[in-house]
Amino acid sequence: MAFDDTQTKQANDELESRLSKDRVDWKDKINDIVHKIKNMNELSDCQVSMLSYRQILLDKVTDFKTMIYKRNGTWERYYRSQYREYTLNYDVKLTSGEKHQFIKADLSSLRTQIDMLQSHVDYYYECIKTLDNLAFAIRNRIRLDEEQI
């Protein structure tokens, strides 16, 4: 069970591009809500969008965590296979630390993919926190307007 690093590196390039586009998209959506808060007539739309976006992000977090779990399983299978390969079939006898370093190098692109996915999950959590803060901002904006009346 040899690991094909080339396919994973290509997949990482595509993944990086998709995640970057997704971050720009979410930044724009959140900025749109922030700018709408200024206008009292658009607050109900802001509330609806905020709640909708929050739920979408929670669904995406779940999907990404599932992907991470699957990739970690793949990483562990390849690690086990590579460890066996370096133990039984490698020409030079390696220490356990050397085997670990060789395997880390062999599987670095898969680890990079897992780390990119985890980083994106963290980004989604920060977006959720921002949306939660916007909910308070909307509430405070309504309260401020009521006090001015």
Reconstruct the topology from this structure.
Blueprint: H1 5-36, H2 43-88, H3 96-106, H4 108-148
Helix pairs in contact: 1-2, 1-4, 2-3, 2-4
Q: Mind explaining what this structure looks like?
A:
By secondary structure, the chain is mainly α. It has a domain at 45-142. It is 87% helix and 0% strand. It contains 4 helices and no strands. It has helices at 5-36, 43-88, 96-106, 108-148. Helix 1 packs parallel to helix 4. The longest helix has 46 residues, at 43-88. The model has no long low-confidence stretch (mean pLDDT 93).
Question: Quick one: how many beta strands?
Answer: 0
The helix tally amounts to 4
Helical fraction equals: over 70%
| Large-scale geometry | rod-shaped
Low-confidence stretches: none
Question: How would you sum up this structure in a few lines?
Answer:
The protein is an all-alpha fold and 149 residues long.
What characteristics describe this protein?
149 residues; mainly alpha; 4 helices
